[in-house]
Amino acid sequence: MNVLMLSPGFPDEMNSFTEGLAAAGARVYGVGEQPLGTLPARCRTALTAYLQVPSLWDDEAAIGEISKEARANNIEFSRIECLWEPLMILAARLREALGVPGMTVAETVPFRDKEIMKSVLDAAGIRTPHHARCTDENQSRAAAERIGFPLIAKPIAGAGSADTHRVNDEKDLDRVLPLIRHVPEVSIEEFIEGREFTFDTICAAGEVLYHNMSWYRPCPLIARTVEWTSPQTIALRNPGVGPLAAGQEMGFAVLKALGFQTGFTHMEWFLTDSGEAVFGEIGARPPGARSVEIMNVASDIDLYQGWAEAVCTGQLSQQIHRRYNAAVIFKRAQGEGRITQIEGLGELLSRFGPHVTSVDLLPPGAHRRNWKQTLMSDGHLVLRHPDLETCVEMADRVGTDLRIYAA
C-alpha cells in the first residue's frame, strides 16, 4: 500500500506516526518543505521516498507538484494522510485531485471551522456553548451582549488554546479585542464552568476501534495564562465511568453527526458541577503535547502503529488492556535566560521511581522556552499508577517539588 504523508517529520510527533505507517507495512511517501537531510534519522528510515516542495501553504502549487511527481513515477496512492491540523484542507484537496479515498474538503471543513462544527452539532441536538462567528470588533461586541458574560473569544480555525481568552465583562472585552485583532475570524462563546476532559478515538470505516478519555489539570485556559502552573494531562484508566459516561455518549454522537470514518480524533468537552456534558471542540487528528504517549503508557500499547493499522487495514491488532492512569506533567523554569539548576528530581525518582516512565527536562545551559508559545514548557515527566487518586497525588508532588531555575 502506498501512503502519502504530509509533513512526516514536523511537528515532532509526526515522526512516530510515519514510523507507524512503515511498521504497518505501508510504503510511505513523504512531502514537506524541509530538505530530506534535515529530517530525523528515524523518519528518513521509514520513508520510501520524499518530495521537498517550496511551500505547503500554497495549495495549488503543492497539488501541482505532488501530482506531477506521482505521474512521473507512476505512483498511485491508497491513502493520503495528514495529522497536522493546518494542512488538513490541503490533504483533502489532494485526495480529490488524485482520486484517493478519505476525507473530502466538505467533510474536513467542519473539523476546522468551529462555527460550522457547532452548527452541525446543534442541529443534531448536542449541547454546545452558545456561540457566534465574528469578523470585526462590532460583531464581537454584539455577540457578547447577546450571549452574556463571562464568555470565551477564540479563533474559528485555531488549534489548542492559542489566542483564546476568557472575557468577564465589558472592560475585559475592551482589553481582549485588540489582542485578537490579527485573527481573521473569531468565535464568541458562552463560558462553560466545569472540569475539562478529552474524548480521543481511532476509527476505521465509522467504527471506533479505540477510545481514550484524558483529564486536563488545570483547564487549558488557565495553563496558558498562569505562568507558575505545572500543567497536567492524565489519561484515565476507566473512561466513561460514572459522571464521565455522559461525555463518552456525547463523543460517539459527535462522531456520528460529523460522519467521521477513519483516523484519529481528539475532542474536548466540559463536565459541569451539575453533571451536564457540554461539547468544546473536535479535531480530525491526534491530541498533541505528549497525549498519545500517555495513552500508550496507560495501556502498554503502540497507538502510532495502531492508527497506521486502522488507516491501512481497517483493524487494530493490539489488545487494549487499561492497566494504569498515566500523567504527563509539564514544568516551567523560574526566571529568564538559560537553565541553571534542577532541584528535587532525585528525591522524586527515589520515591516514585517504579511509576515514572520518562523524564525529559532541558539540561543546564539550555535556553528557557517561551512558556506562552508552547505547552511543552521546559520539559516534562510521565508517570503512571493503577489508582487514580495515587496518580494525581504523585503528579501534584512533581508539580510542587520539581523545580527548574533559569538566569
How is the topology of this model organized?
Elements: E1 2-6, H1 14-23, E2 27-32, H2 41-46, E3 47-52, H3 59-72, E4 79-81, H4 88-98, H5 105-112, H6 114-123, E5 131-134, H7 137-147, E6 151-155, E7 165-167, H8 170-176, E8 186-190, E9 195-204, E10 207-212, E11 214-217, H9 220-225, E12 232-235, H10 245-258, E13 263-271, E14 277-283, H11 291-299, H12 303-313, E15 325-330, E16 339-343, H13 345-352, E17 356-361, E18 379-385, H14 388-401, E19 403-406
Parallel strand pairs: 1-2, 1-4, 2-3
Antiparallel strand pairs: 5-8, 6-7, 6-8, 9-10, 9-11, 9-13, 11-12, 12-15, 13-14, 15-18, 16-19, 17-18
Helix pairs in contact: 1-12, 3-4, 4-5, 5-6
Structural notes for this entry:
By secondary structure, the protein is an alpha+beta fold. Helices cover 34% and strands 26% of the residues. It is built from 14 helices and 19 strands. It has helices at residues 14-23, 41-46, 59-72, 88-98, 105-112, 114-123, 137-147, 170-176, 220-225, 245-258, 291-299, 303-313, 345-352, 388-401; strands spanning 2-6, 27-32, 47-52, 79-81, 131-134, 151-155, 165-167, 186-190, 195-204, 207-212, 214-217, 232-235, 263-271, 277-283, 325-330, 339-343, 356-361, 379-385, 403-406. Strands 9, 10, 11, 12, 13, 14, 15, 17 and 18 form a nine-stranded antiparallel beta sheet that branches. A four-stranded parallel beta sheet has the order 3-2-1-4. A four-stranded antiparallel beta sheet has the order 5-8-6-7, with helices on both faces. Helix 3 (59-72) packs across helix 4 (88-98), helix 4 (88-98) packs antiparallel against helix 5 and helix 5 packs across helix 6 (114-123). The longest helix is centred in the N-terminal third of the chain and has 14 residues, at 59-72. The termini are far apart.
